[in-house]
Structures are given as C-alpha cells and as structure tokens.
Amino acid sequence: MNLKELIERYQRFLITSHTSPDGDALGSCLGLDQWLQEQGKQSAIILSELPQREFPLPGLDRILSLPPWRNNFALFVLDSSEPERIGNDLAGMSSYIVNIDHHPTNSLFGDWQVVDAGASSTAEILTTMISREFTISRSCAQCFYYGILADTGGFRFGNTSARALKAASLLVDCGAQPEMAAKSFFSTLSSFDLKLLGQALLQQVYEEPIAWTILPFWSGISASIDTDFIMNIWRQWSVPYIYILFKEIEPGLYKVSMRSDGSIDLSAIAQQFGGGGHKAASGCTMQGSWIEVRSRLVDAIRRAIQDGKRIS
Ligand code: AMP
Ligand code: MN
Ligand code: MN
C-alpha cells in the first residue's frame, strides 16, 4: 500500500491518537486532517481527551470526541504504540487501519504499518511520506513543524537527527513559521503548572544515579495533566542520568514518567510494569503504596544497571 493508493481507495478518513495528546500527537492529527481535506476527502479527528493546554494550531476546532460515521472509513492511528492507547473503540469499526508511529515498542497492529523508530516524531514520518508525492500547504506545514519541535524538545533531544532537521527545513520551505511555533511551544504554562513544578522540585530525592520525585494526589495532579514541561526543566539539572516522576492520579495509583540520557533502556524497564515508550523516555502505570511502588521501580532500574544493561 502507498499513500496514493490509500486515498484513491477511500473517501472517508478518521484520524486518532493517544490519550493525553502531546504536541506531536496534535500536530500530526491536525496536519494530516488538513492534508486529507485538501485532497477532497472527508476527514475527522477523534480524540478521547482534548489537549489540556492551548495549542494555537489551525483546525483545533475540528477535534471531535465521537465519530461522525460508524463504517466504511479508513482509520489513521498516529503516535500510538498500541490501539489500546487511543482510549476509544474506533479500531473495531474501521475498514482499514493505518498505524503511523515512531515508538520502538509499537505492536505493529493495523493493516498498514508505517513504524520508524529512527524518526524523531510521527510528524516527521508524515512529512516525509506526504512530501514524497504531494505538496504540503502552509497550514499543514505549521502543524507538522509543531509536532517535530515538540517531540525533539525544541530541537534539543538526541532524536534531533539530520532527517528531523531536513523535514523541519522542508516544512519551513512550505511556509511553516518557526518563531510562531516556538512561542506557542515554550510559553504555555499556567500558574497551576508552575505550582506543580515547584512541588515536584521540592520533593525530589537523588540517589546516584537516579533522581525521583512525586506529585501526590493532594497536589491536584490528574491523568490528563501534561507534565512534560516538568521533566524538561528538571533535566536541566545535569547530575542524574535517570529521572522519575511519580504522579499519583488516584490515591494509590501512579502514572510514572521516566527520562534518561539514553545510557539505559527505559522502555525495557517500563515494559516490565506494563508500560512502554522509548529508550530515553518511557512511562507506565503502577499501583500500591508510595514506598512500595517507588522501591519496585528503583530496584528494577538498579538491577538493570548492575546487569550491565547500561549502554555506555
Ligand atoms: P510520558 O512521560 O507520559 O510523556 O511518557 C514518555 C513516553 O513513554 C511516551 O513516548 C509515551 O508514549 C510512553 N508511555 C508512557 N506511558 C505509557 C504506557 N502506559 N504504555 C506505553 N507507553 C507509555
Ligand atoms: Mn506522543
Ligand atoms: Mn511522538
């Protein structure tokens, strides 16, 4: 299958992505939706959760929570390693599923898989895929550019490859405005976000080489609050090489975010606890008392380090 054949075969498309949609998930959904409409197709974006922050991207008002049709459509699942991560049952209703993702833990579900763990972002994959055979409009370029910017942490993370920069450059050629994207990416925090950040930094504990912290339930944290900014600011402290944020989203239930400098495979650790992600950024959900949950995870990381699983 290729993109041309797919859009010749289907007239209606639904696009979806993971719960707690991040910049890559949103930029990818909005850019693809825009492009499909430009091809004269019927398209809709279905997300089970709305973005929490304001993302000043074109087409945000096109995000729906329920599908406008129940059969005879092809479904794009973007930036999601498993169909379960999209939080809806669209996969069961669709005639054809296209799985476009860059998570190495992708379960290769769907009828057509475009999974590239070497890509910085799903938006980069879409940019390369579409630009091979079609032109990319200005507003579509703005969305994809935003996706790449978000998943590379503003072109700072290890996934800022030549390919990622080439895709970004192509998007700027198509009319994307880097300044506008950067402004909306870097200045979106609310005063509540800053309180959470302060709370997380106050509670942090460092035991070489791991730093961890907790946002307890009483802090007001919930599953839908995006805490990527906390990880990004915390990581500016250069001493630890593993950072763990435990978010108590319900009493005794922890959503865990892990980041590393890439010297240990965090996706393998997260998978031991039913989660997944990338080598340098992974996550999982854990249940139990705070002490228990923390020591289970920290012990697993220490074991991985001792077993020589440290990559460098
Ligand atoms: P987060 O810290 O929530 O931003 O997650 C970091 C990375 O791990 C992201 O790429 C997620 O896709 C992935 N991830 C987080 N939680 C899970 C989970 N429960 N299952 C699979 N992957 C996850
Ligand atoms: Mn994502
Ligand atoms: Mn992504």
Written account of the structure:
- It is built from eleven helices and twelve strands.
- With 312 residues, the chain is of the alpha/beta class.
- The protein has two domains: 3-186, Alpha-Beta Complex (inorganic pyrophosphatase (n-terminal core)), CATH 3.90.1640; 191-306, Diaminopimelate Epimerase, Chain A, domain 1.
- Helix 4 (122-133) packs antiparallel against helix 5.
- It starts with a helix and ends with a helix.
- The chain binds adenosine monophosphate and manganese (II) ion (MN) (2 copies).
Strand order of the largest sheet: 3-2-1-4-5-6
Going by helix content, strand content and strand pairing, the class is: alpha/beta
Helix and strand pattern: HEHEEEHEEHHHHHEEHEEHEEH
CATH superfamily of the largest domain: inorganic pyrophosphatase (n-terminal core)
Question: Could you provide a short overview of the structure?
Answer:
By secondary structure, the chain is of the alpha/beta class. The chain is 38% helix and 20% strand.
Topology:
Elements: H1 3-9, E1 12-17, H2 23-38, E2 42-46, E3 63-64, E4 74-78, H3 90-93, E5 96-101, E6 112-115, H4 122-133, H5 138-151, H6 162-173, H7 178-186, H8 191-202, E7 205-207, E8 210-215, H9 228-234, E9 242-250, E10 253-260, H10 266-272, E11 276-277, E12 281-287, H11 290-309
Parallel strand pairs: 1-2, 1-4, 2-3, 4-5, 5-6, 8-9
Antiparallel strand pairs: 7-8, 9-10, 10-12, 11-12
Adenosine monophosphate binds at residues 81, 103, 228, 257, 275-278, 281-285.
